[in-house]
């Protein structure tokens, strides 16, 4: 996380490895950039925008040709219930390229997400 005077930027990189049809491995990195701007009148409420891009690193029979896979863009609001519980709701635009790079699909979605941080110390004390 990168806090600034106008809000917080978050960068998330994931690397997916999928085993498709048993023996083929698809490699797919994802990169998300997220910005949260809290409202001055109510700091628990934030305006949120993020973008996440997916790419196929390798070509597989069932996982598709290498290259661009999909992009997701979100715009909405977030609410911090406390330091461990956060909700987001808004609009998600999902742009998907098919496995052969011949057809593209765009989805317009309403989305709601609930994020819960589990304190590792609390979790370990329950074991």
Give the SSE layout:
Layout: E1 2-3, E2 8-20, E3 24-38, E4 45-56, E5 67-82, E6 85-97, E7 104-116, H1 120-125
Antiparallel strand pairs: 1-2, 2-3, 3-4, 4-5, 5-6, 6-7
| N/C terminus separation | 30 Å
Helix and strand composition category: mainly beta
| Percent of sequence in beta strands | over 45%
Quaternary structure of the protein: single chain
Main sheet overview: 7 strands, antiparallel
Give the number of DSSP strands: 7
H/E element order: EEEEEEEH
Shape: elongated
Average pLDDT confidence is: 91
What portion of residues is helical? under 10%
Number of helices: 1
Low-confidence stretches: none
Radius of gyration: 18 Å
- Describe the strand arrangement of the main beta sheet, using strand numbers: 1-2-3-4-5-6-7
In short:
The protein is mostly beta strands.
Explain the overall architecture:
- The chain has 127 residues and is mainly beta.
- The protein has 1 helix and 7 strands; from the N terminus they run βββββββα.
- It has a 7-stranded antiparallel sheet with strand order 1-2-3-4-5-6-7, with no helix packed on it.
- β5 and β6 (85-97) form a beta hairpin.
- The chain is elongated.
Provide keyphrases for this structure.
5% helix; 7 strands; mainly beta; elongated; 127 residues
